[in-house]
């Protein structure tokens, strides 16, 4: 077959097998086909054979471009290995294309000054400012850079660094105590108290209090926000809790119209047994209170203490009860019978009064009474096993004014009962020891020098009681010795007490009755002595073993210039000890305890100008 025949065959088979543009070429050695493409013609005008596809200029140009891109990719991949990906920013600082060390250095330079600059925070509708350094916030620069990773060598990674960008947060931590202080400082600017719906009075005129929502910082979430967002946001949003009132405005209106106004519209009366007490509208307004109920309603009540003389006037209709006590007037303990009391049940009475003053009809109510059983009954005292003296002690030598106070406190304590398992407190049992209770001004030691106070001298009664309990085998539940040694008391075996002017306890004497039987306290006062006896059932024998005095310290000298100054000869200080040995009635030792006491030297007082 000649060339023309082959060309004819070629043309006839161009659409062979149904594939447009697909040519079937017979397998002929060194065959070349004519081309209609001018670029395929031999420029030398030779035989006219077509060039191979890989030698065509377009193919060569594309190959060259691909090669250039490949070289650029390789160079770029190699050049960016280990760098922070391009386009990376941290808190607005561009660190892309830098090594991790360079990125850390740049962030340190950019963020360190910002730690000392105020940052705005907002919480709800309130704004404030805080300085990150005040919360001791520290930046972990290594962790901050590490979260961005390093440049990926893949083509897509390189393209992302060229055309993309990522923003990362600063990794910080703060000091809990400092953060708490910052939160506390922000609270006045951020917190807003909720106003509950309520009704108050201006004189006898009801005043509605409209409900208003409040807000407060969510402390835990706010601390986290300060640490994580201080560098990442121009305005740090602090989470808050909204405080919603329970009582709606319409309930406030109802309470004013249906409760408050009727309540103060006229006087009312509380009728007791044989005596009445009038309640004026002004007293009702002062005593009427509202609280928010669980269902959003306002619940009214009356405060007895605000009713003024009403309770005092009706107190005469009540009967006070009396606990059973021990009477020692015959020389041995005799149980005095207990009596129950009868008192007004003010909860029930005021509930009835409230109903009367807010409803139609009579504005009067009958007081409700209730029986009040004695706390300590005669039968209970008789069953305590109080039959013999188990511990006693006597002290002597006190001034006339101190003696008055010792007598008053002794009368108060005489007959007191300490049940098994109970603890006796001298301050708690006597209550306030002031002028209204019959106490007078007497000598005390104040700041190392003599002084005078109401109730002075009670420490002698405390020492006497402590020793009676000591030898009765009671458990020491708390006591304190005098700062200076007083010679009429046994060293390391004495006690002092002290109260504030309002009667609150400062230094107390306490002992616990850990025995199975009760204890009664008997006091015997004379013009020159005080004796305290503890009665009960004897279970143990107690021995006191005093130790030698040692470590003496000479007294200092104090010069005073006031007109009331009195010279005092000082006394040395020293250390003393006492060992209490407790044995059962058969002589077996049960316990041995040593108490060491350091007594301060008593200063020598010199009055300026006296010599």
Set down the secondary structure blueprint.
Elements: H1 3-12, H2 57-80, E1 88-90, E2 93-94, H3 100-111, E3 119-123, E4 126-130, E5 138-139, H4 141-146, H5 155-163, E6 166-168, E7 172-173, H6 176-190, E8 198-202, E9 205-209, E10 214-217, H7 219-229, E11 235-237, E12 240-243, H8 249-263, E13 268-271, E14 276-279, H9 281-287, E15 288-292, E16 298-302, H10 309-315, E17 325-327, E18 334-336, E19 341-344, H11 346-358, E20 364-366, E21 369-372, H12 378-382, E22 388-396, H13 400-413, E23 417-418, E24 423-425, H14 426-430, E25 441-446, E26 449-454, H15 458-471, E27 475-478, E28 498-499, E29 505-507, E30 510-512, E31 519-525, E32 529-536, E33 540-546, E34 550-553, E35 557-560, E36 573-584, E37 589-599, E38 604-607
Helix pairs in contact: 6-7
Please describe what this structure looks like.
Pfam families: PG_binding_4, VanW. The structure is a single chain. By secondary structure, the chain is an alpha+beta fold. The chain folds into 3 domains: 118 residues, no CATH class; 127 residues, Ubiquitin-like (UB roll) (Roll), CATH 3.10.20; 224 residues, no CATH class. It contains 15 helices and 38 strands. It has a 4-stranded antiparallel beta sheet. Helix 6 packs across helix 7.
């Amino acid at each position: 077959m000649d060339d023309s025949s082959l060309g004819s065959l070629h043309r006839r088979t161009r659409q062979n097998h149904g594939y447009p543009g697909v040519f079937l070429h017979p397998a002929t050695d060194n065959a070349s086909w004519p081309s209609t493409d001018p670029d395929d013609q031999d420029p030398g005008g030779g035989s006219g054979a077509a060039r191979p596809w890989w030698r065509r200029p377009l193919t060569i140009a594309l190959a060259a471009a691909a090669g250039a891109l490949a070289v650029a990719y390789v160079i770029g991949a190699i050049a960016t290995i280990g760098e922070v990906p391009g386009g990376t920013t941290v808190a607005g600082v561009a660190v892309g294309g830098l090594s991790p060390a360079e990125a850390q250095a740049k962030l340190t330079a950019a963020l360190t000054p910002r730690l000392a600059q105020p940052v705005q925070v907002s919480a709800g509708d309130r704004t404030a400012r805080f300085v990150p350094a005040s919360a001791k916030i520290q930046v972990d620069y290594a962790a901050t850079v590490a979260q961005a990773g390093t440049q990926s060598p893949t083509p897509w990674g390189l393209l992302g660094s060229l055309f993309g960008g990522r923003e990362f947060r600063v990794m910080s931590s703060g000091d809990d105590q400092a953060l708490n202080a910052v939160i506390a400082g922000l609270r006045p600017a951020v917190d807003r108290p909720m106003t509950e719906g309520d009704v108050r009075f201006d004189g006898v005129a009801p005043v509605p209090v409209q409900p208003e929502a409040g807000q407060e910082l969510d402390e835990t979430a706010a601390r986290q926000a300060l640490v994580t967002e201080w560098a990442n946001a121009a305005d740090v949003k602090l989470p808050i809790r909204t405080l919603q009132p329970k009582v709606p405005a319409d309930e406030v209106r109802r309470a004013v119209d249906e409760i408050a106004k009727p309540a103060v519209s006229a006087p009312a009366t509380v009728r007791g047994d044989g005596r009445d007490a009038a309640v004026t509208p002004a007293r009702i307004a002062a005593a009427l209170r509202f609280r928010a109920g669980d269902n959003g309603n306002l619940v009214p009540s009356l405060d007895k203490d605000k009713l003024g003389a009403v309770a005092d006037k009706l107190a005469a209709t009540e009967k006070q009860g009396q606990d059973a006590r021990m009477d020692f007037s015959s020389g041995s303990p005799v149980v005095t019978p207990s009596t129950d009391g009868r008192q007004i049940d003010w909860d029930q009475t005021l509930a009835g009064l409230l109903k009367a003053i807010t409803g139609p009809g009579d504005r009067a109510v009958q007081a409700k009474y209730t029986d009040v059983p004695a706390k300590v009954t005669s039968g209970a005292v008789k069953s305590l096993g109080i039959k013999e003296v188990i511990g006693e002690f006597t002290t002597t030598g006190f001034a006339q004014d101190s003696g008055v106070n010792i007598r008053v406190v002794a009368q108060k304590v005489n007959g007191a009962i300490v049940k098994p398992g109970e603890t006796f407190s001298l301050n708690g049992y006597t209550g306030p020891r002031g002028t209204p209770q019959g106490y007078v001004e007497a000598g005390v030691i104040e700041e190392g020098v003599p002084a005078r106070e109401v109730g002075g001298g009670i420490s002698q009664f405390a020492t006497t009681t402590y020793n009676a309990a000591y030898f009765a085998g009671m458990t020491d539940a708390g006591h304190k010795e005098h700062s200076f040694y007083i010679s009429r008391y046994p060293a390391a075996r004495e006690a002092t007490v002290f109260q504030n002017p309002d009667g609150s306890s400062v230094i107390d004497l306490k002992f616990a009755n850990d025995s199975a039987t009760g204890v009664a306290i008997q006091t015997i006062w004379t013009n020159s002595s005080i004796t305290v006896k503890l009665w009960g059932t004897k279970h143990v024998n107690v021995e006191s073993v005093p130790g030698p005095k040692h470590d003496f310290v000479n007294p200092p000298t104090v010069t005073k210039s006031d007109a009331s100054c009195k010279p005092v000869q000082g006394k040395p200080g020293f250390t003393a000890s006492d060992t209490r040995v407790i044995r059962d009635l058969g002589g077996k030792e049960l316990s041995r305890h040593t108490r060491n006491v350091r007594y301060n030297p008593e200063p020598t007082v010199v009055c300026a100008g006296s010599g």
